[in-house]
Design a protein that fits this description.
The chain is an alpha+beta fold. The protein has one domain. Helix content is 46%, strand content 26%. It is built from two helices and four strands. It has helices spanning 2-28, 99-134; strands at residues 43-54, 60-72, 75-79, 91-95. The strands form two sheets. The protein has a two-stranded antiparallel ribbon. A two-stranded antiparallel ribbon has the order 3-4. Helix 1 runs antiparallel to helix 2.
Length: 137
């Protein structure tokens, strides 16, 4: 049971680490108007889902997994005729990245990561205590 909890927390840490990486990438490219694919940077959004599978002893193991990372094809038009990527009317296609929202999402992902670390460490401490009881310490 305890090891299942550790697996669940570990999958949560992995998922939130990926989420932090994606959000960081979005923030870093919030002003990127030209990509190798052409056009402005497309905001990335990770999609998560729960997974449940049977363990070796028949127990259900649960956690979270990344299903895919989707790209938001939308963009915003900003009037800046001096920008090198401006069209003939002076508008620039900018990524649809709201840095403030991304920062809030980043804080939430960091807190979720920390919560999973705390749960993992608590279970580890409980296991060590149980082993100490078994040794008569």
């Amino acid at each position: 049971m305890e090891f299942d909890i550790m697996n669940i927390s570990a999958s949560g840490m992995t998922a939130n680490r990926l989420r932090i990486d994606v959000i960081s990438d979005n923030i870093a490219n919030a002003e990127t108007t030209r990509t190798p694919e052409g056009g402005p940077y497309k905001k990335k959004i990770p999609v998560f889902a729960e997974y449940i599978k049977r363990g070796l002893n028949g127990n259900k193991l649960a956690g979270v997994r990344v299903v895919k990372i989707v790209q938001d094809p939308s963009y915003k038009l900003v009037y800046d005729p001096t920008h090198p990527d401006a069209d003939k009317d002076g508008y620039v296609k900018m990524p649809n990245v709201n840095v403030l929202k991304e920062m809030v999402d980043l804080i939430n992902a960091q807190r979720a990561y920390e919560a999973n670390v705390t749960a993992f460490n608590t279970v580890k401490s409980m296991i060590n205590s149980a082993l100490g009881i078994g040794r008569g310490a």
